Amino acid sequence: MPTPGPRPTSPGGPLSTLPVEGTIEDLRSALRQTSSAVLQAPPGAGKTTIVPLRLLNEPWLDGQRIVMLEPRRLATRAAARRMADLLGEEVGRTVGYRTRDERHVGRDTRIEVVTEGILTRSLQRDASLPGTGLVIFDEIHERNLQADLALALTLDARDALRPDLRILAMSATLDTGRVAGVIGRDQPAPVITSEGRTHPVDVRWRPPVNSGGRPPRVAEATAAAVQHALRHDEGDVLVFLAGAADIRRVESLLGGRGRPDDVDVRLLFGALSLPEQDLALAPSPAGRRRVVLATDIAETSLTVEGVRVVIDSGQVRSPHFDSRSGLTRLRTGANSRASADQRAGRAGRTEPGVAYRIWSKMEQATRRPHADPEIASVDLTGFALELAVWGTSADDLTFLDPPPRRSLDDARSLLHDLGALGADGRVTDAGRAMSELPVHPRLARMITVGADLGFGAIACSIAAMLEERDVLRGRPDDLPSDLVDRLRLIDGRVRDHPNLDRSALHLVRRRAGELARRAGIGRGDRGSTDPMTAAGLVLALAYPDRAAQARGNRRFRMRNGAGAWLPEGDALAAEPFLVVAELATSATAGRGRADHRILVAAALDESDLELVAGDDVERVTTLAWNPERDDLRVRAERRLGALVLASTEGPAEPGDATVAALLDRVRATHLAVLGWSRASRVLQARLQYAHRAFGGSWPDVSDEGLLAALNEWLAPRLHDVTRRAQLERLDVGQMLRDLVGHHRIHQLDAVVPTTFTLTNGRRVPIDYGSEQPTISIRVQDLYGTTTHPSVADGKVPLVLQLLSPADRPVQITADLPGFWAGSWSEVRKDMAGRYPKHDWPLDPTSATPRSGTSDRRRRRPS
Asked: Which string of b and e fits 359-368 if b means at least 16 CB within 10 Å?
């Protein structure tokens, strides 16, 4: 149990006049009787610095620590330092703090202010949180992912292991009923409200305007509002901007003429050094004013003294899943109405103030009432890894908003690909090691495995750049895609580049050093190896799913089958394999291409690709019709997803798979690949007519019927067939006869004969391809015929296509006696005029037909 720190003169520290003091007794009573409480107090009420001090000596705490979570590192440091000042101590004694990269706590520390990830790590190492009696979730309304996760794990630990652990949720604006219901145990937690102490704030609207035909720029409009406020309003000015780049831009705009001599411009964002942050937070010296250019870190937990004017750019950078990099990154967008109200309230802390908003009053109505919880919009891979380490599914934990099921499933799938989860869904040793690094699991795998391979320093440099921002800036078409160009700038091998972003380079180098220290990567690492030889391998450790294979003309196929491309002249275009870190989605790729534009990538040796892919490389054998050879071939491939690493091709071998492939080809060609002869087609037509005319006792041998019954009549003949030429040599006619049966074939000749014999002995082929059997015959061959020709013992009349001596059709009839008695006279006149040398009798029924015993014309039936 930690030793209690020195007791202040009043319980929990010196007395103050802050509004939250009025809630302390109710808060003490609630936490004495229950395990949780909710405190709602507006900005400036003092909840962040007063409440922990006032609860420090409660009997139920029994000398244990208070752990308070803050959503930002800057707020974490500031809160700890303010409480230490109130106690008259240095940070690290009674009050200390821990962030991702800093640790200022001691043996006697009783109040520990931490960022959310620190609490998660503490819970993962020991879920019972030994020595901790109260966990405070400050500014819980911000709903970042780490806070939601830390709250869920804390509630689970309390319910399962620590019934004595107290939980306090604090916020300026939140759905108190909902939060109270979540953190309460058997019933909703008590809600205590502080009235706060604020002054009126005059809200003024200054939307940007077009200038010179170009779209308005928020930075210019914000700088103009600052200059206006300095001329017309009193007090220090707090300016809210989206990020460091916007802050630097406005700082530059304010650095010219027109700024009063008594005004200091101070910057406030997380990446600044501690002295720079202190300078921004310190009150202005007498006779001077200051303009503080800040991100949203000054929106809630921090107090910036002396501010009477707030200028709100209306923008905020919030985390969203970035499909280009596969990571969660900050994206600039409009802040919510609740955020705007929080920011404006900063102007009324001590006396009436003014808030300028760089957007219109009409636009205000279209903005979201509150910011969406991060859990609904960010990548959940790290979140899913923490749940796996915790050993509990999301369904068994209590969240303010449950994680989206699809996002969680996608995250688990990626973790499996990264080796963090086993086939059973449980966390692996590699996954546990990855969870210890404060980066996305992709980057954590790159660092941990890269360090094992001797490339840890390179891995840290790549991770830092991907996590922070590119060290090259400019339009994509002006930047090389090769990651190696950036690595050589980061490690100093190359000292300059036309597109170098020096502030980003400094940030990436510092972050890379922090990651290397955290991962224990020292001088023994092969970081001096030329990045050209290791960049692809190391990057592939983070992006095994983004390997790409060249397919010609600067185009690549990704492992998932998607297409990607490089611009003309890019040095990587000639590489056979790449691993891609950043892609532009098709919506932004432009140029009418459906594929993705590769923004940042590295060349990858095939051997390194196989090393990274491991068991994911598959040997796939496919039996398919080769369109170039127009034949069946066996193709053996070594594949990684859609990538073909190697392939061989050869003839098929007999077997069931070959039979199935041949049948597929027969279906695809609608039987045309088979060796049909004219005789087999005639037999098919006769059999099909028998099926139509005499019923189901005769099989359906139409093309559709044969295709439906391939397994019955064709498959048994294919066991020794492997090639197209063998298919073509198959006797289709014999297979049809076998299908019908020997005894039925003789019956077929009787009922559906191939020819019809005339009275003069001529044999005329019968065409069964039409609805009714048809013969084409010269009209002179039918002289003397008084009954209509028929087959099947007279049951089926033939359709007669009567021809002239030149074999041209003159009449079609199914009633020969009727033709003789009717239209013959007209036909006779026409024929006599055309062919006078031939006999055209008045009474053809008594005339003699042409002589002959057979028809040798071999005329194809029409």
From this structure: beeeeeeeee
In whole angstroms, how far apart are CA 782 and each of 211, 815, 840, 846? Answer: 99, 13, 12, 10
Q: Rounded to an integer, what distance in angstroms lies between the CA atom of residue 2 and that of residue 615?
A: 50
Q: What angle do CA 597, 599, 602 make, to 5 degrees?
A: 115
Residue 46, phi then psi, degrees to nearest 5 = 100, 10
What per-residue string of b and e applies to 87-97 under the rule 16 or more CB within 10 Å gives b? bebebbbbbbb
Q: Do 73 and 27 form a contact (C-beta atoms < 8 A)?
A: no
**Residue in 61, 45, 100 with CA at minimum distance from that of residue 77:** 100
Distance CA 710, CA 701 (A): 11
Three-state SS sequence of 590-607: CCCCCCEEEEEEEECCHH
3-state helix, strand and coil shares in percent for the chain, rounded to the nearest 5:
40, 20, 40
Residue 319 forms beta bridges with which residues?
330
Q: How many CB atoms lie within 10 A of CB 862?
A: 12
d(CA 104, CA 500): 35
- Whether the model clears a pTM of 0.85, i.e. scores above it, the answer is no
The dihedrals phi and psi of 820, each to the nearest 5 degrees, come to -60, -45
Q: Please answer whether residues 622 and 638 qualify as being in contact, where contact means their C-beta atoms are separated by less than 8 angstroms.
A: no
**What DSSP element (H or E) covers 582?**
strand 577-584
> How many C-beta atoms surround the C-beta of residue 673 within 10 A?
18
Task: Retrieve residue 334's tokens.
Answer: 């409009």
List helix spans (H) across 543-605.
586-589
Contact 269, 240 (CB under 8 A): no
First to last CA, the chain: 106
Position 623, amino acid = L
Residue type (1 letter), 413: S
Return the structure tokens found at 416: 């499996």
Q: Which letter does DSSP use for residue 427 in this model?
A: B
State the burial class of residue 691 (Cβ atoms within 10 Å of its Cβ: 0-12, 13-18, 19+).
Answer: middle
Phi, psi (5° rounding) for residue 482?
-70, 120
Q: What is the DSSP letter of 758?
A: -
Strands 65-70 and 111-115 turn out to be parallel
Bridge partners of 619, per DSSP, are 638
- Could you state, in chain order, the average pLDDT of each consecutive group of 10 residues for the chain (862 residues)? 40 69 94 93 85 95 95 88 93 94 92 93 95 94 89 95 95 80 90 83 89 71 93 93 89 77 87 80 87 83 82 87 69 88 86 93 90 87 96 93 92 93 94 94 96 93 93 89 94 90 91 92 60 87 94 92 91 95 64 73 92 89 89 92 90 92 94 92 91 85 94 93 92 91 84 88 88 91 92 87 93 93 92 91 90 47 38
Strands 191-193 and 36-40: parallel
Nearest to 39 by CA among 150, 237, 189, 208: 189
Which domains are delineated in the chain?
19-193 (3.40.50.300), 201-374 (3.40.50.300), 380-431 (no CATH), 437-615 (no CATH), 617-751 (no CATH), 755-846 (no CATH)
* Count of CB atoms situated within 10 Å of the CB of 36: 23
Residues belonging to the chain: 862
